[in-house]
Each structure stands twice: as structure tokens, then as C-alpha cells.
């Protein structure tokens, strides 16, 4: 699709998130630049783009056409290290999570002298995908940060992170983009797609590929109390292999359960509203645990759909 936004490393602008940018700029201005910043928010909302924007600010590469800016764009800046999920060459897709071997280079990188005489910056994109060993290794780094070093950590599920890890970070929570900001990022997409994306450019691009109808059909069947047939099982197996599809299915189920809880509350049926609210919270736990511990997503989808069917049968 033409008109897709550039990848985060190459993005010349950040649309929205001005409150987070101001918070960081104020810390810079007053000399209170914390060593770790947790950038959290919905999937596809621009967390990695903001992380690179702030990294450019620290390294003096905000001008993409400057020598420093070009090195950051090319991935050759000696004082910037990026950690994210790697591609599995056998499967041709991203691995399920970030492992300790992915995190180990951070320790060496941060204890080397900066090649350009300033700050050393690390971006860890997708903190919720760290396995337990990787999370503990990163925590040790945050507990003993070297001078003139800063980490930007992104997460779509901050509630599932180690509390000790979260407590060592300054929080930069992001929300969805406004309608005009979405239109500026993706001017070629129709308004109905942008509206259903809830302020997430990444979600909008996914919806534009038409995959949402598959998820919506499963959710509608589950909310009606229907049993899963062979075709449903095949669909679930396919969705489990697609991170975007899994996230969208969880979002649609969560919205449907929350709507039912709200309707029950308005009707005065507070016991049922409480049960549905509890199931909505449980759905969130299923999602966080499956992503944090790299669990079988097909099983997570089945468990999530079972919650929706129970909500109908009560």
C-alpha cells in the first residue's frame, strides 16, 4: 500500500504524543534526565517512533539530513543500540520473544566509552516479549546504570512487566492519536478504517488489509454462545501465527465484554455486570501472560473465546 508511514528509525515527524515529548524536554531542560524511560500504549500507536525521536534528541541527530541524523537512519551510529525481536530464518517470521542472548550485548555496549563523546542510547522495543531471563538481565542493568547512558523501553502491556523493572523507569504513557493526526499519518486510508483503528496507525494498516472481518466473525460467534467447529479451529491456528490478528481479536473480545458489562450495569443488574467486568479483566491477563511468557497463542485464543461464551450463557 502506498503512503504507509516510514519505519520508526526513519520517521521525520512524531504525530501526536506531545505531552510525552514535553515531559521529556522538561527533564532535559532542568537536568533531570532519567536513565530509563518506559514508553507504553496500545499496539501500533507509535511507541517505537517516539523512542527513535527521543534518541535523536539525545544524540543530536534530530535533523535527518545531518551527518549524525544520517547515521541513525542507516543504523550505523556507534552510540545507539536497538534490541527487538529477531527474525526466525527457518519460519520466515519474527520470533515469539526477546531472549537473554538478545539482551546481553546491552551490558557491554553501555560500559564502553561513547564513540562520539556523548550519550549512549539503547532502545528495547517490545518489552512485554522479554522472557524471564532477559527481563532479569535488563533489570540488573537498570539497577546499576552507568553514567551518560539512557534506555528507551517500549511496551504494549506494561501491566505484565516485572514491578521492579517498571519502578526503575520514568513513565511516558501514550494514548491513541486524534482523528486529524490519524488522517495526517495515513491520508490515503478511508475514514471508516481510521475510525475503527481507535487512534492506532498500525491497527489502521492492519484493518486496511481486511483481516478484521475474520476476527470479528469469531468474536460475534463466541458472544452469541456458539460452539467452535472445525473451520473455527483452522482459523484460530492461523490467527495464532499473526501477532496483529491475536491483538485485534483480544481487543474486539474485550470491547464486547465491556459493552455487555456496561449494559448490565445500566439495566441495574449489578451482579452480572461485576461478573462480566471480571471476565474482561481475565481476558487482559490472558493476553499479557501469552505475550510475556511466549505461550501458545492458539490456546490463549481458545481460552479467550470460552470466556466470551460463558458471558452469554450466564
From TrEMBL:
GO CC terms on record? DNA polymerase III complex
Q: Which GO terms describe its biological process?
A: DNA-templated DNA replication
Coiled-coil regions, chain positions = none
Q: Which domain of life is it from?
A: Bacteria
One Pfam family name is: DNA_pol3_delta2
Q: Using the record, list the residue span of the signal peptide; answer none if the entry has no such feature.
A: none
Q: What is this protein called?
A: DNA polymerase III subunit delta
Q: What is the lineage of its organism?
A: Bacteria, Pseudomonadati, Pseudomonadota, Alphaproteobacteria, Acetobacterales
Amino acid at each position: 500500500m502506498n503512503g504507509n508511514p516510514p519505519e520508526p528509525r526513519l520517521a521525520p515527524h512524531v504525530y501526536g504524543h506531545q505531552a510525552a515529548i514535553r515531559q521529556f524536554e522538561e527533564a532535559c531542560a532542568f537536568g533531570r534526565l532519567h536513565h530509563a524511560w518506559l514508553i507504553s500504549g496500545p499496539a501500533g500507536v507509535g511507541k517505537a517512533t517516539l523512542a527513535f525521536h527521543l534518541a535523536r534528541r539525545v544524540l543530536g541527530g534530530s535533523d535527518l539530513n545531518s551527518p549524525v541524523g544520517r547515521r541513525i537512519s542507516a543504523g550505523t551510529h556507534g552510540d545507539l543500540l536497538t534490541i527487538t525481536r529477531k527474525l526466525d530464518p527457518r519460519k520466515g517470521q519474527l520470533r515469539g520473544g526477546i531472549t537473554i542472548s538478545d539482551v546481553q550485548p546491552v551490558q557491554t555496549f553501555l560500559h564502553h566509552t561513547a564513540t562520539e563523546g556523548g550519550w549512549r542510547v539503547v532502545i528495547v522495543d517490545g518489552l512485554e516479549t522479554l522472557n524471564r531471563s532477559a527481563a532479569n538481565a535488563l533489570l540488573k542493568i537498570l539497577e546499576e546504570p552507568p553514567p551518560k547512558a539512557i534506555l528507551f523501553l517500549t511496551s504494549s502491556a506494561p501491566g505484565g512487566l516485572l514491578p521492579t523493572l517498571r519502578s526503575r523507569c520514568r513513565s511516558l504513557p501514550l494514548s491513541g492519536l486524534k482523528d486529524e493526526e490519524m488522517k495526517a499519518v495515513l491520508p490515503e486510508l478511508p475514514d471508516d478504517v481510521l475510525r475503527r483503528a481507535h487512534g492506532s496507525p498500525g491497527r489502521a494498516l492492519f484493518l486496511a488489509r481486511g483481516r478484521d472481518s475474520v476476527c470479528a466473525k469469531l468474536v460475534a460467534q463466541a458472544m452469541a454462545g456458539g460452539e467452535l467447529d472445525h473451520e473455527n479451529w483452522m482459523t484460530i491456528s492461523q490467527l495464532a501465527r499473526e501477532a496483529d490478528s491475536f491483538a485485534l481479536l483480544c481487543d474486539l473480545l474485550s470491547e464486547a465484554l465491556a459493552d455487555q458489562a456496561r449494559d448490565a450495569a445500566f439495566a441495574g443488574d449489578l451482579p452480572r455486570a461485576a461478573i462480566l467486568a471480571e471476565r474482561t479483566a481475565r481476558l487482559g491477563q490472558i493476553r499479557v501472560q501469552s505475550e510475556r511468557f511466549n505461550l501458545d497463542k492458539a490456546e490463549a485464543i481458545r481460552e479467550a473465546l470460552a470466556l466470551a461464551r460463558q458471558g452469554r450463557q450466564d
